[in-house]
Amino acid sequence: MTGTPQITIAQITDIHLFDDSGLTLKGIDTNSSFQAVLAAIANLEQQPDLLLVTGDLTQDGLNHSYQRLHHELSHLSIPAYCIPGNHDSAELVQNFLADMAAIDRRLVLGNWQILLLNSAVPGQVHGHLADATLQWLECQLEANPDLNTLIALHHPALAIDSEWMDMISLQNRDQFWQICDRYPQIKAVIAGHAHQDIDAFWQGKGSQQIRHLVTPSTCVQFAPQKNCFALDYERSPGFRLLYLYGDGRVETEVKRLPQGKFVPTR
Q: CB–CB of 166/160 below 8 Å?
């Protein structure tokens, strides 16, 4: 890191908790891998200012799964905010996660605003930002031109060179980026859904570039740059740290669990 960040954020995503803590996803015990990631965050030398949980909170969308998630997050020493993914029920997220629910929600820390968007479509795997969400996004940007801005959503808003995943990512990405192109205070967009680490840039019509970051899952990983679904048998679950500076800079790193831990067997 260069200098001292104004804000440090931990991002976790795609937890896929089950109602039954013993169930597995593609051979991975999602509860155990989630617990291991939370422990890794708790053991950081410098604790983040907050935790963003960017969707697919549960695998089964059941009441008890959200209750278990709320129980775990409420024991952290930092505030947590959750947005739904395609495996979630936005209604249950709001009902069972209470103040942690962040569906089209704005947070302000220092001279940064964090805008958390709901890209989940009930009953669908792909993402879409509703007209009301896009209008809300533009209102926040228009009203706060002097605040550096980080946007969080579940579905990636850029193609990631993975044909099957690109088909189920954000469907109205052009509308999203048309709005972003009008507001130079946007510094980064973060997402999940793809179960892998992506660090790319969206290029606006002028000189504006916005960093687009996708974060690994806390459970199973997907192999990058594949035309069809494939698991990653090498990389462990992980999380992302974001360092936000007062001058608008964003630095980031992905931290993973020890090599080979919670990796599916072939």
A: yes
Q: List the domain boundaries for the chain.
A: 7-256
The answer to whether the beta carbons of residues 64 and 92 sit under 8 Å apart is no
Using CA atoms of 165, 31, 215, 70 in order, give the dihedral in degrees to the nearest 10.
110
d(CA 73, CA 198): 26
- CATH class entry, domain 7-256: alpha beta
The pLDDT score that the predictor gives to residue 1 is: 64
CB-based burial, 33-67: b 16+ in 10 Å, e otherwise = bbebbbebbeeeeeebbbbbbbbbbbbebbeebbe
- Categorise residue 262: left if φ over 0, alpha if ψ from -120 to 50, beta otherwise: left
Which burial class, exposed, middle or buried, applies to 116 when counting CB atoms under 10 A from its CB (0-12, 13-18, 19+)?
Answer: buried
Alpha-carbon gap, residue 10 to 131, rounded angstroms? 29
DSSP element (H, E) containing 188: strand 186-191
In this prediction the pTM is 0.97
CA 33 from centre of chain: 17
CB 115 within 8 A of CB 108: no
142-179 confidence digits (pLDDT tens): 999 999 999 999 999 999 999 999 999 999 999 999 99
Q: What is the mean pLDDT of the chain?
A: 95
CB of 215 closer than 8 Å to CB of 255: no
Q: In this structure, what token pair is assigned to residue 125?
A: 């795997």
In this prediction, residue 203 has a pLDDT band, given cuts at 50, 70 and 90, of very high
Percent of the chain with pLDDT over 90: 91
At position 149, the amino acid (one-letter code) is T
